[in-house]
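Quick one: structure for this chain?
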Amino acid sequence: MALPTTEIVYDLVDTSRVSDAHAIEVASFPPEEAGSLEKFQYRQQHAPELFLGAYIPTPGGRILAGYVCSTLSSSEHLTHESMDEHEPSGTSVCIHAVCVALIHRHRGIALGLLKDYISRLEKARQNGAPYIRILLITHENMRSLYEKAGFEWLGKSEVVHGPEPWYEMGKTLSTAPVPASQPPSLPPGIWEALQRSSSRKAPVARLFAAFDNGVDDITKKEDNLITNKADLLCPRGGCGSIILKNGVASLTERNSVQIDPPTVHSGSSMLPSLPPPGSPMKWWKITPNAMAFENIEVSRAVTLPAHTIADTKKRIKLLACAECELGPLGWHEEGGTEFWLAIDRVGYRE
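Got it. Here's what it folds into:
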């Protein structure tokens, strides 16, 4: 069971933990994208201050839940060369990977790790380190995560690594903070306005189990399709992010798919358990692409466990709330045009 992010400790990855970080990498990336253990050892040896881990404290010691690792380059853009070499005097921090172990995902660890990493780099720059910018390449489905951390979209990268295209993102590190004696000038009344509580209330999500008449209470019939009567929301209390507008999804019955890690057992997740793989269940089907959603986060493609009995044999991508990262709420077959949300893993707007 993943622990709350408040219990996460951020600390450098030393030589004894490099193999743990590499194991997370191998389990998270397809073989053609995963870095070798030798590359991990090279990065830790030559740029140990740029290899940061997210640790979960336990009575038996700290568990490495995720990591971010980088090397330096003098180039203003990420290239094949900057991915392979470390230039100690380089001004660009080139991130090679930001990765969280599968069992600890969708708890905000990746975003927290990035924010702590950026804070450390900015403090180092203010203390004389040569860092000017952070660069990384990512697949399009991870764009929202990095934008939340303050990165800007720079466009398609020239780097070719595996079958999927890569896109470059960057963030310029801040310089020394403005002295307290010289505060930035603000228009009159703006500070008070920013501090004032918002009058807009977050939508309230009603869970599927609370409806007395089941699917009859959450559906309506339109053009021979049974669609969602209300907006679909993130089910996490206090989030209420709108995932899908009413009338966009169609109610469909198909077999259950194992989208939770095998180590997550009933009662250990914030989300209700799905029926065993192969059992029929109700899903919301959304087509033709992710643009139909108001707010959704799509993971990298993962391979279904060998023992899973499912009516899909391709790799799938997991769906989560893009605001609070709660998930998986559903799934999407790699390369397909259909997205599936479990009817009891989303909330319904009251």
